Amino acid sequence: MQIDILTLFPEVFSSIFSSSIIKRAQDKKIATIRLINIRDFGEGKHKNVDDKPYGGGIGMILKVNIIDRAINFAKQTLKEKKCRIILLDPRGKQFDQQIARRLVKYGKIILICGHYEGVDERVKKLADESLSIGPYILTGGEIPASVITETVIRLLPGVLLKPRAIKDESFSKDLFEYPQYTRPRIYKELAVPKILFSGNHAQILAWRQIRQKSVKSPKNVRKD
Fold it and tell me: How many domains is the chain built from?
């Protein structure tokens, strides 16, 4: 899979993409991440990429023609790959594990990171869909792009050393993962459940399934 990220701040991703699972996926040639600087497609001596909004308002808006140039550059390396162009937008559909599983099916993903006061509304017409990582406002799309990139890459075959982990972990079946413990057995009067030391694998499995189903969705979590 190839993931192209269109951004004004490619340096934001350097530490995130050079360690752990994402680095392993790139080293094994399972995934390729390319950072494309939107400013490279800017206009004039100062490579301008934004302008004041029509009708007045605070802030600057990324221009649709600049984003279109960046998208067209990214698309040059398609080579028959099935591609999905995604605008990262707080008004978009909220990203979740189900969407991540859908995106794995594409050979290439292009992520558009907005910034400043946002992008020209017509950019939506250039994308296949708009995604958000939550109902809140961020300075730009770089953090959402990092979230989506890691979530998708770790689902690719061969990335995780233990593929079963994908099936067992949280949200794989729209459930939270069951509670897990390790040493010490007792810490400050907090003890590990005795069932885990029983040696009865059937009972342990039943206990885990009960605990896992006790919260079926993140929507059921208390918001105190």
Answer: 2
